[in-house]
Amino acid sequence: MKPLRNGSRNLTPKQHSHEMGLSARQLPVRLAPYPDELLSSWIIRHAAFYAVPPLAMLQHCLPEIQSLRTADVDITESQVARIARMFSADPTTVLRMTFSNITKSSRRLIASGPRQLCCSCSPITNELHPLLRSRFLGWRITCPLCGNLLQNADGRPRRSPFSRYHNSALIGEQLLDDEAERGMQNWMPPSEIARLLLMRRVPRPLPDRYEPSNHRVLGVIIPDLDDVLRVQSSKLPSRASTLLPLHLRPALLAGVAIVQHSGPEMLHMLRSHMMGENKARFGSAIDEIVGCARQSRTSSQLHLI
After folding, report:
1. Which domain holds residue 89?
2. What pLDDT does residue 139 have?
3. Sorting pLDDT into bands at 50, 70 and 90, what band is 239?
4. Dihedrals φ, ψ of 194, to 5°?
5. E-assigned strands of the chain?
6. How many domains does the chain have?
């Protein structure tokens, strides 16, 4: 690679930032982003090229941002424009490298670290391995680039015990992806369905060694779930976090697809499988979410008149 020139001196990419003239508005050398690469990953690769800390590279353009995670999740349009200017890139491309377009209701499905990977699409380089955006998306079981099944973050395959629900899971994945990436939803946001399905229920009859955390509303739709959780000693998160391990995710995605297709009547049926405060909370959540969705649709229709 040719050295960079600053005044009368030849400078290599590995010299410190103050020697390189990083005060320029645009970087003299720009690395092309990989398909589906995360913005922070792109910044880290540039930082390695210029031998500066990644946060220093980011703050060279956006001094107000205190972490790379913020750049991925909470960057504004004006900040995107400034990043695009520094990297001589299209702002639309830069925005697509972040999670800023993800709808608020789907944000709880974004992992704080890589949860999965596609062995076919993960770039293999002699330098830093780029991080793909899809590795953080908790509603995906397939790669958005090639469509292959994702694997655990360590690259080791783990067969899902819910493979027979694969077709329904793919429908659920598409529903959640449409909501998260494009703001599309039907009679109820798919992410809210997922949250309700992870609420606890009391099975009938009550099994021996009853463990409340292993019995969720989802188990009414996917009967295999209770046995899988009992045998594998797997733990599901609370309804506040719908981020499931990859091998359990098809069950939740299939459940979302089934409820979305069946309509509100299924939610009321599921409510009958609950008891006490959980039953009351489930009913209140249904009324609130369905009511908000109905009001939103009415507002949209009035806007078109």
Report:
1. 4-99
2. 97
3. low
4. -60, -40
5. 4-6, 9-11, 116-117, 151-152
6. 2
